[in-house]
Design goal:
By secondary structure, the protein is mainly α. It has 2 domains: 66 residues, no CATH class; 97 residues, no CATH class. The protein is 73% helix and 0% strand. It is built from 10 helices and no strands. Helix 2 runs parallel beside helix 4 and helix 7 packs across helix 9. It is elongated, with a radius of gyration of 21 Å. One of its GO terms (molecular function) is microtubule plus-end binding. It comes from Dissostichus mawsoni. This is TOG domain-containing protein. InterPro entries: ARM-like (IPR011989), ARM-type_fold (IPR016024), TOG (IPR034085), XMAP215 (IPR045110).
Length: 194
């Protein structure tokens, strides 16, 4: 790449567009190579002191987001649960919850329904940390999409559904308490020393 840095920079928009399209490919090997190449590409761009144009930045915004969440999404939603170690499962689920809060439902690939059904399976896990992470992730989805979450997660056992509904109620109470704890502008003005 070093010997071809000028050619790479001149075609950067096209390269970034191609990589962005590859993120939605189902071939894990291709995806790993894309992420590996992007690391090398950005290291080269940094050495060259190259600044992305606005269009290139827009292309990379989706790539950066994808590069951050792809490993967790794949591990949580496409690999058998037994293939993850006990500390990876909750971490992946927590990361997905954060990404859903930050970026919305578009991080749930290939479809929100398929991803959320797999996440909801973890609500019944014996491991408390996995169960809590799955509940928190589904609550994050609820905060983004409201009651649609019940349709997206599919059928849950009665026990799992009651745990989820309780967690959603508690999160709504916390949000309401946090909102009421913040003084309004009028209250701050009245309290301000004169």
């Amino acid at each position: 790449m070093e010997s071809e840095s000028d050619a790479t920079i001149s075609c950067l928009d096209l390269i970034l567009k191609w990589f962005t399209l590859r993120f939605f490919d189902t071939n894990t090997t291709v995806l790993m190579k894309v992420l590996e190449y992007l690391k090398l590409l950005f290291a080269m761009l940094t050495r060259e002191d190259y600044h992305l144009t606005e269009l290139e930045s827009q292309r990379m915004e989706s790539a950066k987001m994808f590069g951050r969440y792809w490993p967790c999404c794949v591990m949580c939603t496409q690999h058998p649960r037994s293939s993850l170690s006990s500390w990876k499962e909750p971490k992946c689920l927590e990361e997905l919850g954060c990404l859903i809060e930050g970026y919305g439902m578009n991080v749930c690939q290939p479809t929100p329904a398929k991803s959320l059904k797999e996440i909801a399976v973890h609500i019944g896990d014996r491991d408390t940390s996995v169960r809590n992470a799955a509940l928190n992730t589904v609550v994050a989805v609820y905060n983004v999409s409201g009651d649609q979450v019940y349709k997206l997660i599919g059928n849950l056992s009665e026990k799992d559904m009651s745990m989820l509904e309780e967690r959603i109620k508690r999160s709504a109470k916390k949000a309401a308490a946090a909102a009421s704890a913040k003084p309004s502008t009028a209250e701050r003005t009245q309290r301000a020393p004169r």
